[in-house]
Design a protein that fits this description.
heterodimer, A: about 425 residues, alpha/beta, D-Maltodextrin-Binding Protein, domain 2, 20 helices, B: about 350 residues, mainly alpha, MetI-like fold, 2 strands, about 70% helix, flat
Chain lengths: ~425, ~350
């Protein structure tokens, strides 16, 4: 029995292994030579992770094929949980898709390791105007002065609120120009211990949390070059205390409670009155009948620096070792154009990055104040990232959890975090 | 072996007359119990010629190699090569896309200077000790289930075994809801008797034990099944003799059952310790870096995963993997030494 199973396993896995070993043998190094137009039909692969967006992506691929009959685009979907592990292995082995989706935390890692094709040629050939995309997103996909990704879509952060809980306390709904003070006083006024209701949720959350409040206080998580931590500034401390004070005053559930039950679930269950969440949440809330008309969204409140949201978005990138550089460049050029953005806007799943195509998304869920998300783009800051972002986001979670929990006071914790983060950044190559 | 030889004789088309005579391993024993149809040839060739034998020996070795090859290949490719490769990687700084640089013992120096290693090691050790506490529980349940004339034994056995065939990830998720501080079943039950529960999985004081308890619950089934089989193998006359001498059920358990099944207890304890030293899936599902109790629950394998697959430090992670290997080998060797004092082989 045992022997049979080993045999079967060996037989089944040998091809995989050979592939794996072959992958290990490849060396890295990017090709930057000019793209030579190929004669004859080619097929390029397009790696994505969201199956909800397949219809829109397929439509784009079909229209591209109609305009370029020689190039066929094959869409490859990998679930997000495995996407970057798979991509990394494939890229190391020389077999990543020709064109694929990239995100903020990973782009510099891939760019610095010569896995991505600089897109200057692509941009000039397709006559793309970078001013048509949010500046913060263009910056996110810029490394060492070179563009590596064309923004595809974006998300910003807003404050969702439960209308019934506001009504119960006879409180006016958040206005578009509200401030930190308004938010803090509302959070305390909405808290009702006897009913188990909290005014706000203050989890140890980066994107829909301190990545917004730190720049709102005129601080930064990491400097623009991605080499130095900004956590040890008085502004960052302000941005962190915005949250920890809520926990301390009981206006937010504790870290332990939010570990057991996610704050998002508490908000949906009507136990939390205000919850910071990204624009991606709109589709979800719109799909739940009990929530559809019970919640709405406001922009992030204005801090000392004004209303600042972090902006993140996916980018379309080209694999440095693609065998079909010419076709890949044409396709990314098409993906970056207005037509592709319009197709995405009509599909409604995400906010397209291309200027002027966001209106369709805003109108797709008219009961929500979705304009708030789009208007924030003007003042938004790029998603903090460096070459090995994961190395310090781990530290960030570790140390800030202690601060939230009251094990360490905020000033000491942030100083520690900055020191350790700078050490991690110094190790990046 | 005999079956294998027969197969090869049939497969290779050698006739029964010549094959067994030269068989290096089985000829003597097979001579006593003759296989039908082979006997005539065998008796006729009692004086073997040297050249014939070495030809046959070579032939046998060839087929032996053919039959061993798949397993050997599997072992080399899936066990030995990865170990060697891990060792090599541990001396390098390997980039996220391959490409490595030899750094000597730098990873190990950093590793042993890292307080996190010792913290996760201590957590792992605690898991292991708690996991061992599950063995007496399994023993008692197995002894009860083997009670003469007990009704519904099969049902109990299925119930206890059910967790074993359930995905640990699913188990982890379900226990997470049971342990939930605000809406969990456990706290609701405790509330009935006036005890105020805690956030079991996010309270640093309780999280590790809460998870380890699930680990025990998960592995109980396997342990009970093995103990049941061992108990059923104990000769009945031993119990009858003990009963005649006036030993009660409990005395019988201590003086007969336990010593008789001690090899199984040893086997289970070795498996339990190795399993506990490799604890990862439950930690991964039931806690996580955002859990305030994570520093108190992160095991060494979880730390390995974090460094290697999240933070892209493959060289450092490889060094952790080797430390885990050395620890497991050392602990297992220690167990094998200690067994001489308490395991009775009949």
């Amino acid at each position: 029995m045992r022997r049979t199973s080993t045999l079967a396993a060996t037989a089944a896995l040998t091809p995989l292994l050979v592939l794996g070993l072959a992958a290990c043998g490849q060396s890295t190094g990017g090709a930057t030579a000019d793209a030579q137009p190929e004669s004859g039909p080619v097929t390029i692969s397009y790696g994505i992770w969201d199956k909800n967006q397949v219809p829109a992506m397929q439509k784009i691929a079909d229209e591209f094929h109609a305009a370029n009959p020689n190039v066929t685009v094959k869409i490859q979907v990998t679930p997000f949980k495995q996407y970057f592990t798979t991509l990394q292995t494939a890229a190391a082995g020389g077999g990543a898709p020709d064109v694929f989706w990239m995100n903020g935390p990973n782009v510099k890692l891939y760019a610095a390791n010569q896995q991505l094709l600089p897109l200057d040629q692509t941009i000039s050939r397709a006559k793309l105007d970078l001013a048509k995309y949010p500046e913060a997103l263009v910056d996110l996909y810029t490394y060492d002065g070179k563009r590596y990704g064309i923004p595809k879509d974006f998300d910003t952060i807003g404050v969702w609120y439960n209308k019934a809980l506001f009504d119960a306390k006879k409180l006016a709904y958040p206005k578009d120009d509200w401030t930190w003070a308004d938010f803090q006083s509302a959070a305390r006024a909405l808290t009702d211990k006897t009913k188990g209701v909290y005014g706000a949720a203050a989890p140890v959350e980066d994107q829909a949390g301190f990545y917004d409040t730190i720049p709102s206080a005129d601080g930064q998580v990491i400097d623009a070059a991605g080499t130095k931590s900004g956590f040890d500034s008085p502004e960052a401390l302000q941005g962190i205390e915005f949250w920890t004070s809520l926990v301390k005053d009981g206006a937010s559930p504790t870290v332990q409670q939010m570990t057991d039950t996610s704050p998002g679930d508490m908000f949906k269950a009507g136990k939390v009155a205000m919850y910071w969440n990204g624009s991606w949440a709109a589709v979800e809330y719109n799909g739940v009948p009990e929530l559809k008309d019970a919640v709405n969204v406001a922009p992030v409140p204005a801090g000392p620096k004004g209303q600042v949201s972090v902006i993140h978005g996916l980018g379309n990138v080209i694999y440095a070792k693609t065998k079909h550089q010419d076709a890949a460049q044409k396709f990314v050029g098409f993906l970056g154009g207005e037509r592709a953005a319009q197709i995405q806007a009509d599909a409604g799943a995400v906010i397209p990055a291309y200027e002027g195509t966001q209106e369709a998304w805003v109108k797709s869920m008219p009961q929500f104040n979705l304009k708030a998300y789009v208007d924030e783009v003007a003042t938004a800051v790029p998603y903090p990232a460096s070459k090995n972002t994961k190395a310090w986001t781990t530290l960030q979670t570790d140390l800030l959890t202690k601060v939230w929990n009251g094990e360490v006071d905020a000033a000491t914790g942030l100083k520690d975090l900055a020191t350790q983060m700078n050490a991690a950044l110094a190790k990046e190559k | 072996m005999a079956g294998v030889l027969t197969d090869r004789e049939q497969a290779s088309g050698t006739d029964g007359a010549t094959a067994p005579g030269g068989s290096p391993s089985g000829s003597g024993s097979r001579g006593d119990t003759p296989a039908p149809g082979r006997r005539p040839g065998r008796s006729g060739r009692s004086g073997r010629s040297g050249s014939g034998m070495s030809r046959m020996r070579r032939n046998d070795l060839f087929w032996a190699a053919v039959f061993i090859l798949p397993t050997l290949l599997g072992l080399v490719v899936f066990y030995l090569w990865p170990v060697v490769r891990t060792l090599l990687i541990s001396f390098t700084e390997t980039g996220p896309f391959g490409g490595s640089e030899f750094v000597g013992l730098a990873n190990y120096r950093e590793l042993f200077g890292d307080a996190r290693l010792w913290e996760t090691m201590l957590n792992t050790l605690k898991f292991t000790v708690v996991a061992l506490l599950g063995i007496p529980v399994a023993l008692v349940i197995a002894a009860l289930l083997s009670t003469e004339g007990l009704r519904g034994v099969r049902i109990y056995r299925v119930l206890y075994f059910l967790p074993v065939v359930t995905m640990p990830a699913a188990v982890g998720l379900i226990w997470r809801t049971l342990y939930n501080g605000d809406v969990g079943v456990i706290n609701a039950l405790l509330g009935l008797v006036g005890i105020e529960g805690t956030n079991w999985l996010s309270n640093p004081a309780t999280a590790l034990y809460a998870i380890a308890a699930v680990g025990i619950w998960l592995s109980l089934g396997t342990q009970i099944v093995i103990f049941l089989a061992a108990i059923q193998g104990v000769p009945k006359d031993l119990y009858e003799a003990a009963a005649l001498d006036g030993a009660g059920r409990i005395r019988q358990f201590w003086s007969i059952t336990l010593p008789q099944i001690s090899p199984s207890v040893f086997f289970i304890s070795v498996l339990a310790v190795i399993g506990a030293l490799q604890t990862f899936d439950l930690i991964f599902v039931m806690t996580g870096p955002t859990n305030p109790a994570y520093p108190q629950t992160e095991t060494i394998v979880a730390q390995f995963y974090q460094r290697g697959f999240v933070e892209n430090q493959q060289g450092y992670a490889a060094a952790i993997a080797l430390v885990i290997l050395v620890v497991i080998v050392a602990v297992t060797a220690l167990q094998f030494r200690l067994q001489k004092k308490w395991v009775h082989y009949v």
